[in-house]
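Researcher: Go.
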Amino acid sequence: MELFLLFIQSMRKLYTLFLFLFVATTLYAQPYQRATELPMPKVPPMRVLHHDNIDNKQKLILKLDGSDDGLFSPTNNAAANQQLTDILIINVNNMQAKVEMSTTLDENGKFKWLRGIDEMLNAFISGYKAKTINGALLGDLILSYDDAMQLEWKKESIKPIVERNEIEIGQILIDNFALKNNVGVAASQEVLLLKTCYRYPKKVLSILGKNPNVFFADSVIASMAHKDPEQLYNYAAAPNPLGRKIQSVNEPLVKIIGLLSLMKTGRQYFPFLDNIYRKKITLDSITGVLNDTTAYFKLLVNTQIDYAQRKRNNDTPLVANVLTEKLKRKVSENYVMEINALHEPGFEKVRFNSLNPLSAQDLYYVAVLGEEEIYTSSYVSGVYPRIFQRMKAAKEHSADTLLNLVKYDYYKKFIKIAANYNTLDDFLSRMDKSNSEKLMRNFVSGLEKTTTLEDAVDVADSYGSIYNPGIKKIILGQINDNLVQSEQNGNKRGQTIYNLLNIIFLSLDSSAKIDLPARLGIDGVYNMPIDKLQDSSGRIIIQQFFYGDKDGQGVFNSFFKNYSSAYWRRVDKPDWVELSSIKGTPITIYCNKPFDNEQDLDAKAQENLGKYLEENGIEPTVVIHRGHSYFVGSTIDQLPSSSKIVLLGSCGGYQRLADVLDISPAAQIIASKQTGTGLVNIALILAITDNLRLGKTLDWPVIWKNLDLKFKGETKDKFDDYVPPYRNLGAIFIMAYKKAMAIR
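Model: Structure:
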């Protein structure tokens, strides 16, 4: 009932028909009184079989709960089960008696109603077995059928009965043999359609598509314009009855959506729907910038900021998500793809030219919405420094001024990016100390109020990249305050989030001696036992994804030079290479050949290798991505769920942790926060394969310590950006949270 009220409210309370239906529903609740059993008159032999059929259906229903105890028990409430059983026995028997005692029914009429009662019970049995009707509805069904029978005998509509009942009951009534010609069937069918729209709001327009002329069509279309304008837009231009119906509705927002849907460039206008509807912007002003890439992008940014301020005031604009998605696409298409593509030597002077017309706010959105794709150098050398160059030019020097300009939209994402790319200290230094401390407290607060884990994971990821002890102290203090507050409020989600973050962050202090896996109840993150990587034959399967650009082909060709023929045997296949150990632990490394990427031949080779592995029951437990960051998505899309170790050896691989864990929830992930490099990647791969071939457990702290001693200079700096599994705080948090919530 409360849900229906919310539905009414979402319809903006404009339509009295919905309110009337809601009131009718609430009036139905009546206390059940056990019926007095009527005497059954003598039944003529010609109708005995019909009564026997009904009696058999009653007996069958009593056994539907799996127990032959003479009681139908579909609920956990003993009193309710007894009530249902009484109705099944007494009220059905009484209906049979009423039919036989009727002086207005002729012989055919009595046959008709006995068949109708039998068919009603049979419909319940079929629905219950198919799990399309709740057993608790049996009583309402029988009582409603009795009421409907009385109305039909008086030639009155059964619509009021359909209105006050669940869809399943109403459908059984109007489909029933004895009621199918009732004067209220047509109206009842529309009532059921309305109820279906209420129950399945995502299917409303699909339902109307098949029934565009129902009495409530205009009202529902007007409601959908405010509730799900994007869905309405998708239907409005269709050359069919529903499309024409939408175009005919005389409601301001529906008229705008209908107009945009008929325009060839309507999708370009649609992100601004709320401001168009509120007359804050005109179609002509949007038309004036459609062909100007920079001007259109700036309009998107300004509207995003406007909507961000409204959200802070608890006012959610129409299609705000559509605006953000459009802005994100433009960030990628107009800027990130170009500055990434020009990362090769020789393009330094022109690489960032596309950013020249952009303001500090524009560049801010390039950073936060381009996070998944932007290269380290594109951010560190291009976007970030230009933000404050623009601020200085506008005589707006401080970092908190920037956040005020964008109304703190995506500010937690910006802090996370700054931490991961080592620009956080610089960013915080550009504001007063008190403001920076407040910002970081806010950064780790309110995590329990979101509908996703994104903000909490961003906090976890960021902490491992923060080296300023003062900032760390502030974060830990606020995490503890939030935990105490969540406990006082009884907020279980908040308690889980802040407790996990507290444990994870404290574990980074070696003096605390925290056994992280034991405290969090997750698989070990400090090591990977060799037996967890072996298949039933004792072999370890490793799959490497190579890509067919110039760099990828060079990496592929050099890879095999690191494996001595004294310990490894190479076998070439048409689309891949198999590198197998001939001494020590059995290991096979499958490497697809990096054929021409521009013709997608590398993708075909990967596909063929994947099919071969799957068809032969070969499950990789170690997966290695070798290629630039723009290829990492393809690797993740093909990632086998059997993966236990995943090495993302590319720029920005660290941004894709959640995607990996969605496929392989317990995988240990190694990734770089900044620039991936071949020298580090091959050193890591050799450390993994050498240890495994020698039968050793992969002890990550030891491996990291040994590699740290090996690298010098610039390569050492690159290695420092790689995050081992035991310091992969975002991944650890996700695993621990899922474990904790599953236990709850």
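Model: The chain has four domains: 42-186, 284-409, 411-521, 527-727.
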